[in-house]
Amino acid sequence: MSLDELRALCDRHARPDGATAIDGVLVSKVEHSTPPSTSMSGTVLALIAQGAKRIALGDRVYEYRAGQYLIASVDLPVTGHFINATPQVPALGFGLVLQPAAVAELLLSSSPADLPPPAAGVPSGLAVSDAPGEFVDAVVRLLRLLDRPRDIAVLAPLIKREILWRVVTGEQGTVVRQLGLADSGLTHIARSVRWIREHYTQAFRVEDVARLAGMSVSAFYRNFQAVTAMSPIQFQKQIRLQEARLLLATHPNDVTGVGLRVGYDSPSQFSREYRRQFGAPPSQDAAHLRGVSAR
User: What's the pTM value of the predicted model, to 2 decimals?
Assistant: First the structure.
């Protein structure tokens, strides 16, 4: 019954921007399946109430359906879309933005004996699991507060903490726990990911970014690949191409200029890599984006 009520709550409270009156809580409703699109994942917990979503990260593909949740512990460039969504049966979902400080506070107030043993190695930045009943029940109780606004300020923080605890002690607990540990391997990789995102137009040496992460080059490369399913250079390319596509939506007649702005010195290389990523050359894709925006 919890999943049925979750569907009803998501359907009732979904807004075009996904936001809700509860800070950090998102509700989505998608009535049409669209071709896969690129975006940044954010650090988020996403629970599907109805329908299914498919996400690609590098060469890995994740699919999760009603009653399953996805954890994104690092802000990663992903390609994804909802599957078989229709106005009659829309895709419905709940999202909770994951805050490292909230995870750290929860870990500090708990006993190590209450937590499952950590898994070996650095986990992937994305993970999918079935949602236990008590987890779904807590999400339902949180969304019920949208019908009782005066209760949000007092009760929402308590229920969000409960949801986080269910995840921290669940199957993907290792992924979320590392998000709150300042010295975890995941945190070091997240620091390097953030640096590349902020300096994506600049050429860099992997040795320098490894030093920033506090790792040897071999350990950094291995752990970066484990978390992001990409090499650091491939990751930078994904960020550049995503930024280029956003710029082309507003500057469709300046393909060469957009390529230069995102870090490409060679227009031919920019066009080649853009086409490989999005299935059309920049000028053609820009015209398509302009048409979609006009509609």
Answer: 0.83
